[in-house]
Amino acid sequence: MPEITTGAAALILTAVLGYLLGSIPFGVVVTKVMGLGDLRQIGSGNIGATNVLRTGNKPAALATLLFDGGKGAVAVLLARAWAGEDAAQLAALAAFLGHLFPVWLKFKGGKGVATFLGTLLALAFPVGLAACATWLATALVSRISSLSALVASATAFIWAALLGHGSMVILIVTLATLVFWRHLPNIERLKAGTEPRIGGKK
């Protein structure tokens, strides 16, 4: 963990603003704006980019991916510029929790993969890049989004340690644990061999 140098009031404000930013459900917004219907009634009902892709609209899926990753990155960068590294890590956690439990959707959010990767890219670009490359390599081999997310999140703390960002390890392990928790149904389907592949219909 980084040294705590920011005052309690500033950290609380960072957490609140990070959560509110992270809670913006871009998947729902993008699909509505593009006339694709209510994303929560499509495919798996998840609000992330993988489910947006099930609409058959690749630009919408890409936009959701970039916005969901971007909101995590923006939260980190703003907190770092305003307060410091301790606030940046808190903002990363808050934005991630906002995506998982958005107040605007009665706390029923996504699985956090894009936001997880976005926060890593902003916290330490080499670590985030390595995690993204891990996701991509796994996806190219397996064609399964959930497996790619699990592998990328499970190995991210190793990349952080190897690349000299040990202060991020506790945060990464926390976020990865939440990713695995949100993917428990996917893990069961992976075990059963019934998990949908990228580009397939639910």
Give an overview in words.
The protein is an all-alpha fold. The protein has one domain. It is built from ten helices and no strands. The protein starts with 7 loop residues before the first helix and ends in a 10-residue tail after the last helix.
Give the helix/strand class.
Answer: mainly alpha
- What is the helix/strand order? HHHHHHHHHH
Number of strands: 0
Which stretches are low in confidence, meaning pLDDT under 50 for 5 or more residues running? none
Q: What fraction of residues sit in β-strands? A: under 5%
Globally, the shape reads globular
Radius of gyration from the alpha-carbon trace, in angstroms = 16 Å
The description of the largest β-sheet is: none
Distance between the termini: 40 Å
Mean pLDDT: 91
Q: Estimate percent helicity.
A: 55-70%
Number of structural units classed as domains: 1
Q: Counting H and I runs of at least 4 residues, what is the number of helices?
A: 10
Could you give a short description of this structure?
The protein is an all-alpha fold and 202 residues long.
List the helices and strands and how they pair.
Blueprint: H1 8-22, H2 26-33, H3 49-53, H4 58-82, H5 85-100, H6 113-123, H7 125-142, H8 145-162, H9 169-182, H10 184-192
Helix pairs in contact: 1-4, 1-5, 2-4, 4-5, 4-6, 5-6, 6-7, 7-8, 8-9
